[in-house]
Amino acid sequence: MKRPLYESSTQYKNWRYSPERLSQIRSTMNEAAVGVIRKTFEAYEPGSSSNVSFVNAHEEHLLVTFYVHKISQLCGHFRFPEEVEATATSYLKRFYLKNTVMDWHPKSVMLTALFLATKTTNNPISLDVYASHIPNTVASDVLNLEFLVAQSLAFEFAVWHTHRALWGIWLDIQNLPDSPPDISKTQGSIYDSALIHVRAARLTDAEFIYTPSQIALACISLTAPDLAKKWLESKENMPVPENRTDIPPRPSATTLFASIEAIKSIITNAGKVPDVEAVREVDRRLRTCKNPEKVVGTKAYLARKAEAEKKAEEKKNKKAEIQKATGAADTDPFGDPLSEPVKPGLVDYDDDDD
Amino acid sequence: MANFEKSGSTKPFTSKEKPELQFLTLTSTTMATKSNYGWLQGRTVRKGGHSSSNSHTRSSTPQVQSTSTTIFGGGIKDPSGRTSEYFSMDDQCPVCKSDRYLNPKLRLLCNRCESCIDRLFTLGPAPCPICNKVLRKLAFSPQTFEDLGVEKEVAVRRRIAKEFNKRLEDFDDLRSYNDYLEEVEDIAFNLINNIDILATEARIAAYKAANAALTSLNLQREEAEALALKEQEDLERREREARAAQLAQQEQQERDERQREERELIDKLETSQKDAHKIVAKSRIAAAKRSSARAASSSANSGLLGMSFGADYAKLLKTRTNKVTNNVPDEPHVPFQDDWYAYDDLYTVRVDGYDDIISEAVRKDREGIMRAGGYKVEEAWNRALLTAVAGLDVVPLSGSDEPKSLGDADVVMDSV
């Protein structure tokens, strides 16, 4: 039996978690980050760290969600297609599953993630144009973090999106045997409101737990439950063609029911834009507890840079020593020059008689 | 074609004679498909240097062209007139010491100037003043190559090639063909460097006796090929001309039509009572219809025209390739298969399309600008439907055990 195609995607393989696992990841990361930063503070100004109140995992998540919402505002400003917006959102959320806001402020990461998303979805925009449209931003601000973002994503840039699944379901509903021929016009509002739910779902963790088709089905179910049920049952009852032994069992409406209800509750509960005031409070606290090593100009940052440079120097010297020991420095790295003289050619190019 | 060799008569070959001759078109393709010495075999040339299919003949230039009007015998006969005679400013006839300064039209044939040869050999074969070998006038040939040695070699090879013209197909295997070639080279080398001339000549005679039939057969084959090639070139040229003529005609037609339309439009505007805009709109629609109809018909026409010439051309090409190459059978093709199930039975893209807002711009695009890069709406729909049914049956993870693939979860933070 063949494996379903979705299982070959990195989204299925690497970016799938359970809700418990998600909170576990976030809290462990937060604690580890706090520990590291506290140590760094202590190293330079002993005693200062006790005054600093670090942000906790929940507040980090709040901040990230707020900036996810900012992405959609930016995309509206640039008129980017929906795919860019969805991809940038995924990148930002995934980034903060591997990093903490105290190291990298979401504002800069958001700009970088959005720029990266325009490139990976084949809607590229010139860096200068991009930077000029965003106040107080220089091109280097965007590029500095690009490699970091890519690395945190494990260079897995392809994302399966919910809005595309929603479109697919909508097209397929038109194909149902008993749907009226002009359903796309008369009931187009179903699609529109389902799309709003999809956008709300982007602010949540739904994409890490469920697949895009399940989330899309849930969005339609929120708007038109009967239609969604009808469609799902039609898929379940779709006849298996004969002599096809490679097809896995059909999706079952009953088993999916629980997932769909769970997604619906996630969307309705968590699919809201965070309160601006709360976010501002977190931001203020964040400014004090940022990791000093990452802030350009502080002692810690300079010390870290000096250390890194020293290590690089050491490596270079070691290499030079090894080379001298083996006498490799005398030989030409491109090999010895040829010893034979050049044969006189058959054609005498200097003869200009003709 | 062999008349030249035989007519070693003392009669000077005046320019008014018109022997019955054959044509050779000297193109690079002939050199590839014919035997090695094909172009050396010196087919005799139609008089006057006027070659109808060959548009490369030059008009008369100050340099003398090696046409048959001035060829006495031997020498390279180039009907296209592209190889001009070799000359340099310090040529001098060793006998009468006249050089190009005094006589710009001096032609040195085999070291003697033309007029000297006339004088010396008109009365029959006479000994050469320098080497005392008895020569005939016919044996003098205008020099084409700078190095006399090369000239001699070329002459020898040309002569041999007339005798030895076997091809690869005449032999059973490559080895025997190569042996034959080696023998030919041997003979040529001997003759050129004056080694064992008598023995070599005997060999040539023996070979000629043994292979007379095959040689003449090959000759005929080569002639046939030359003819076929010439025909095909003619065909090509005709086709090209026809196409050009057709294009020109089409353009002319279009121009006329446009003019006519404009005039009609003006007339209508003048005479009719209706609203000007409506008339203009109507005429524009009619014009669009006409142009599209014309485009359709012209493409059909050109298809037909192309076909009629193309079929013959294709046949000719096929015969040529069949002769040259062997048909290597294709290995059976195994299509690429993979192990993934693509949900293809769970959905079908509706054949007559969907009516949805997202694809509206592409579907409404009449001129097909958006489709120019190969974009097909069906593919976008396919992808959407695939995403819609992919992973419907995936059960979400639960519990807080760490899955295997997340082993390096926090490494990123430490490294940076």
UniProtKB/TrEMBL annotation, chain A:
Name the Pfam families for this protein.
Cyclin_C_2 (PF16899), Cyclin_N (PF00134)
Q: Where is this region: Disordered?
A: 306-354
Source organism, top-level taxon: Eukaryota
Question: By its UniProt entry, which SMART domains does this protein fall under?
Answer: CYCLIN
CDD domains, A to Z: CYCLIN_CCNH_rpt1 (cd20524), CYCLIN_CCNH_rpt2 (cd20525)
Under the heading InterPro entries, the entry gives:
Cyclin-like_dom, Cyclin-like_sf, Cyclin/Ssn8, Cyclin_C_2, Cyclin_N
Q: Where is the composition biased (Basic and acidic residues)?
A: 306-322
Q: Does the keyword Transmembrane helix apply?
A: no
Instruction: List each copy of the Cyclin-like domain by range.
Output: 69-151
* Annotated SUPFAM superfamilies: Cyclin-like
List keywords of the entry alphabetically: Cyclin
Task: Spell out the family assignment given in the record's similarity comment.
Answer: Belongs to the cyclin family.
The protein here is known as Cyclin-like protein
Annotated organism of origin = Lentinula lateritia
Recite the lineage of the species: Eukaryota, Fungi, Dikarya, Basidiomycota, Agaricomycotina
From TrEMBL, chain B:
- Localization (cell): Nucleus
Annotated region (Disordered), positions in chain: 43-77, 239-269
* Biological processes per GO annotation: nucleotide-excision repair; regulation of transcription by RNA polymerase II
Short name of any one Pfam family annotated for the protein: MAT1
According to the UniProt entry, which residue ranges have a biased composition of type Low complexity?
Answer: 50-70
Gene Ontology terms: cellular component: transcription factor TFIIH holo complex
Q: Where is the composition biased (Basic and acidic residues)?
A: 252-269
Q: Which segments constitute the MAT1 centre domain? A: 135-300
InterPro entries named among the record's database cross-references: MAT1/Tfb3, MAT1_centre, Znf_RING, Znf_RING/FYVE/PHD
Residue ranges constituting the RING-type domain according to the UniProt record: 90-131
What's an example of a GO molecular-function annotation for this chain? cyclin-dependent protein serine/threonine kinase activator activity
Keywords from the named record? Kinase, Nucleus, Transferase
Which top-rank group of organisms is this from?
Eukaryota
This one is known as RNA polymerase II transcription factor B subunit 3
Organism expressing this protein natively: Lentinula lateritia
The organism that produces this protein has a lineage beginning with: Eukaryota, Fungi, Dikarya, Basidiomycota, Agaricomycotina
